[in-house]
Amino acid sequence: MKIYYLQGKEISEKQAKAIEAKNKEYINSNDISLWAKCQFITVINK
Fold first, then answer.
1. Which pTM does this prediction carry?
2. Strands 41-45 and 2-6
3. Taking burial as the number of CB atoms within 10 A of a residue's CB, which of 3, 8, 10, 19 is the most buried?
4. Rounded CA gap, 4 and 11, in Å?
C-alpha cells in the first residue's frame, strides 16, 4: 500500500498521478520558469 503526501498533507493516488504528469510536462518544456512550478510528492510504502 502506498500513501502519497504533498506539502505534508495526504493526497489520493489519482491526484498524485495527475501532479506527476503535470511535472513531466513542465520538465520537458524549454521554459525554466515552468520548472519552478513542479510539486514534489512523498510516497510511503507500507
1. 0.83
2. antiparallel
3. 19
4. 5
